[in-house]
Write a structure and sequence with these properties.
- The termini are far apart.
- The mean pLDDT is 88.
- The protein is elongated, with a radius of gyration of 28 Å.
- A hairpin with a 7-residue loop joins strand 3 and strand 4.
- The chain has three domains: 160 residues, Rossmann fold; 89 residues, Orthogonal Bundle (Helix Hairpins), CATH 1.10.287.1770; 95 residues, no CATH class.
- By secondary structure, the protein is of the alpha/beta class.
- Strands 2-3-4-1-5-6-8 form a seven-stranded mixed beta sheet, with helices on both faces. A two-stranded antiparallel ribbon has the order 7-9.
- Helix 7 packs antiparallel against helix 10, helix 13 runs antiparallel to helix 16 and helix 14 runs antiparallel to helix 15.
- The structure holds guanosine-5'-diphosphate (GDP) and magnesium ion.
Length: 442
């Protein structure tokens, strides 16, 4: 039996995976791509293997992670899906759930981080969620090892009973009409390649070229779908992707209104929203960003880094002088003397004196990263960077590039598409790190 473990990033997938498998893990890569594939045997159930899939937010074909997950689900057809959902961010997490349900694979929802939900004073109606979603829901806390046994039992049960998700229809109005029309039209094609027709239809309405290719539709059918979609877009006044996103979020909103009780309004959350309003504001966002970066550069290159750097070179100079006189007194061969003093000390010394600046810059950048400001910058810069064909996330490697190109290029790992990664890798070395400035000057 194969279980696929799927969820958003930071929903606790790795934590749950470790709880489920203990130390029986194997790590490899998905064939052809550098996306990690981890699998392990569930403790106490030799017959059950669980595969940890990459953290994703949607099953579209945009990033390697999404393509890997989608291929795995459609081609290998796992026996069941364990969808892990961060209960403290339930609205956003359920967006993926709604798409997984359309795959018509037996599925259990693991509602993680329930310990936090409780300590915030909120409650979630598990039974209600279960009925409205049409799949079993198990509240768990992966870190506290609560509810894991029940989760495994429920997962084994859905396989045994071959219990597919009961409800598929999350759509209303124009979207509903379009999805169903397309679903009927492509029914035979979807069956032929073994893809659930509702899933295929939704993807076609979203404008998914890979799905269109795979289904081998005729010109005529492609035309008919395009007409239905255009009709829907004019009816709703928004484009196809937005229409489907709207449909899913409308459903989720209602679902949460009915089943999630948020009594504990946390002050931290309100404050965070207020700060975000300024940091991602239409006009203030970029000036704020520039101000923050200027401050960091000023602190790094002038106030802190440069001073430490000066102190360090002073130390190195003194040491060099000391060794110089020592060697001179010892009467060493002038060639060896020059090699040690002019070569090793001067050479290594001048490289060493850069280190304080780099360390200081990285210190500030890691504060930006851990405070979540980097994610806001990526969001703000997205529109601008798209104009040169990059995504907002490329900002992070580029900023790191001011410190040093090596870690900057390494950090492009986190970019989602191969193309973005390559573009960013090529552009990053043009960011001026402090070692490049003297070279420009010369
Ligand atoms: P992944 O990105 O989905 O693999 O998520 P991780 O397993 O790395 O977890 C992300 C963070 O959430 C980590 O800091 C975990 O310690 C934390 N976490 C995971 N499960 C729970 C939980 O049940 N309760 C709480 N409070 N934190 C959790
Ligand atoms: Mg993980």
């Amino acid at each position: 039996m194969i279980f696929a473990l799927i969820g958003n990033q930071n929903s606790g997938k790795t934590t749950l995976f470790n709880q489920l498998t203990g130390s029986n893990q194997r790590v490899g890569n998905f064939p052809g791509v550098t996306v990690e594939r981890k699998e392990g045997i569930i403790k106490g159930h030799k017959e059950a293997t669980v595969v940890d899939l990459p953290g994703i937010y949607s099953i579209s074909p945009y990033s390697n992670e999404e393509i890997v997950t989608r291929d795995f689900l459609l081609k290998s057809r796992p026996d069941a899906i364990i969808n892990i959902v961060d209960a403290t961010n339930i609205e956003r997490n359920l967006y993926l759930t709604l798409q997984l349900i359309e795959l018509e694979i037996p599925m259990v929802l693991a509602l993680n981080m329930m310990d936090e939900v409780r300590s915030n004073g909120n409650t979630i109606d598990i039974k209600g969620l279960q009925t409205e979603l049409g799949i079993p829901v198990v509240p768990i806390s992966a870190v506290k090892n609560e509810g894991i046994t029940e989760l495994v039992d429920k997962a084994l049960l859905v396989i045994e009973k071959q219990r597919k998700p009961k409800i598929l229809d999350f759509c209303t109005g124009a979207v509903h009409r379009t999805i169903h029309a397309v679903a009927h039209l492509i029914e035979d094609h979807a069956e032929k390649i073994g893809v659930p027709r509702r899933f295929a239809a939704t993807k076609l309405v979203e404008g998914d070229d890979i799905m269109q290719e795979a289904l081998k539709l005729s010109e005529n059918e492609i035309d008919m779908i395009a007409h239905s979609v255009t009709e829907m877009e004019t009816d709703l006044g928004i484009d196809r992707e937005a229409a489907l996103a709207d449909m899913r979020y409308n459903f989720i909103e209602k679902l949460c209104q009915n089943n999630v009780v948020k009594t504990g309004k946390s002050k931290e959350h309100e404050r965070s929203i207020l700060i975000d309003k300024l940091l991602t504001h239409k006009y203030f966002a970029i000036p704020t960003f520039l101000l923050i970066m200027l401050t960091i550069f000023w602190l790094t290159f002038d106030v802190i880094g440069q001073r430490i750097s000066d102190l360090l070179s002073l130390g190195i100079d003194n040491l060099t002088g000391l060794v110089d006189t020592m060697l001179a007194n010892y009467g060493l061969n002038p060639v060896v003397h020059s090699l040690v003093i002019d070569g090793i000390f001067a050479g290594v010394g001048s490289v060493l004196s850069f280190i304080p600046i780099i360390v200081t810059l990285f210190f500030f950048l890691s504060i930006l990263e851990d405070s979540g400001y980097m994610a806001r910058i990526a969001f703000v810069m997205d529109k601008l960077l798209r104009k040169i064909g990059l995504s907002g996330r490329s900002v992070v490697p580029m900023l790191i590039g001011f410190g040093c190109s090596v870690p900057a290029i390494m950090s492009t790992r986190t970019l989602s598409s191969d193309r973005d990664r390559k573009m960013t890798i090529l552009l990053t070395p043009f960011m001026s790190c402090s070692a490049k400035l003297p070279i420009y000057a010369v």
